[in-house]
Amino acid sequence: MAGLDDELTNQLISGDYADFERLVDKAIRQEDQRNKMDKKRKAAQFRAHQGSHQRPRFIPGQQGGPTTMIVRQYLPFNPSNFHQGASGSQDHHGGQPNRGAAPRPPVAPAQSGSSAQAKKETGTKPESCFNCGELGHFADKCPKPRRAGPWFVQARVNHASAEEAQAAPEVVLGTFPVNSIPATVIFDSGATHSFISKKFVGMHGLVREELSTPMRVHTPGNSSTSVQFSPSITIEIQRSPFLANLILLESKDLDVILGMDWLTKFKGVIDCANHTVTLTNEKGETVVYKSPDSPKQEVSLNQIEVEIPVVIEEKNSRKLEEIPIVCEYPEVFPEDLTTMPPKREIEFRIDLAPGTAPIYKRPYRMAANELAEVKKQVDEQLQKGYIRPSTSPWGAPVIFVEKKDKTKRMCVDYRALNEVTIKNKYPLLRIDDLFDQLKGAKVFSKIDLRSGYHQLRIREEDIPKTAFTTRYGLYECKVMSFGLTNAPAFFMNLMNKVFMEFLDKFVVEFIDDILIYSKSEEEHEQHLRLVLEKLKEHQLYAKFSKCDFWLTEVKFLGHVITAQGVAVDPSNVEIARPMTQLLKKDEKFKWTAECDRGFEELKKKLVSAPVLILPEQMKDFQVYCDASRHGLGCVLMQEGRVVAYASRQLRPHEGNYPTHDLELAAVVHALKIWNC
Length: 676
Fold this sequence. Notes:
676 residues, alpha+beta, Cathepsin D, subunit A, domain 1, HIV Type 1 Reverse Transcriptase, Chain A, domain 1, 4 domains, five-stranded mixed beta sheet, 30 strands, 25% strand, elongated
């Protein structure tokens, strides 16, 4: 009791408690009772000081008699005004006796059996037992069996984090589907109840319901109150489903805690030595789960991120030396680019609009860790020769862009420079046009250049325009940088010049991605060698970990390409994009239920989109068109199979077209797209 205040200690010290839990329970109840009485006392004092403020009070008549309204004026606070008998109290109206009202009936002295009535008449509330709710005694003297009480159900959790759980012998940790969502779960025999993380419930939209009685949950060094639970949660263990009602709890990195209530229901046995849990499902079958022993297999909250490196490792398990043809060109796949690229026929240029003056922008504020990353990446690029210190009047601030592997790439915010740059009109090919060349291909290889933009120099007189500002000084770029408006066009020009003799024969390239396609493995051997030879000749380098060779199915530019044709990559629909209507000018962004239904339907349509065949130019094509009051649609087909399809919404003025004009608009739309 050393941590309790003196008043609470005096109230508890004379009691007899069977165990520590009952002592805690009693202390909580006494503290709640004291706080409640303090609030009542303050409220009474406030009312007593109101002076002339009057409040009507109604006294019901007896046996159908008249009902009397008495207006009482509250006197200044004085203990003598709150005596037990009501005979000494007067009714007042403006400080005078209320002669116009019916007299109040006298109140008999309070007897032991009428304490509630006496308390009611004197303005105080009778005390009741916290255990059984009856009058006349307190919880510590209650003759009835103790129960959890009306205020809180008491609960206990021994481990609130995965780090604590892994070091404890009495728990077993694992990852299981919880409502089909991977979750970190522990079996904890020291927990009285079963819990689920509030964050997990919120992230995945699980159902919540209110507890009939609040629960006070005690964790090591802390306690909290839970008022909600998630009903009928399905936990799949060793492919066997188990149901659970889980109470919501704040948890750092544990998604689900299965305590004694759940373990008892399914006859759970925890073997601490072998780290196994044995359960009996609803069919009476025995289910045994063994937790991994190796600390390297510890599970994190985001299990998806743990599994991804395993897949990548499997994909790249083949070494460069083991891949036919590729093994002959190790110099094309260096571990890193360490020097400046060679001087090429094409250099990146920045042509400005006439009369443009230098533009300087101050650096953005950054956190300490971001400043450290800037310093690190600036030093690396200085060593490689990609940048140099500058005295240019130009200057753009640095920003960070997060890459797929969660690392940060330092970029420069060149928006001000781009606005005054004359745009390069070099054409970037349509992706669907690139795929038209793949008819009959069965074997594929994909090559991704390493830091492609850094393999092209900037013209010397344009280098000062690329200056960027940092906390550590002003620098300018000697190689093409991310964020410059004409960078894709210049790099596409370079790649077209390098592979011009192979284009539309067995090479498709789009900026720094190269696809090699062949009708047989014998052809592919020759084609792959020619492409690698060109890369070696022009000192263009690729990143081996992002390349794929000798495939029958390849993902390229958001599509899956096989011998059967081209289909939409299903993984792309995981990225949610607002509906087209919400992107219109002056349109208020409001995501409605209709938008949500449309989005879900769009995902289904994209995933189930038909495989497009690769057309043969010498055969006939058929065009099918249709129109409605909402949009235009058309399909290009060959021999009864889809080559391409297109659609668009109606423009505002087209909504007034008659039916035959709409049909004609659909035909015109198709002819414009496919140049029929």
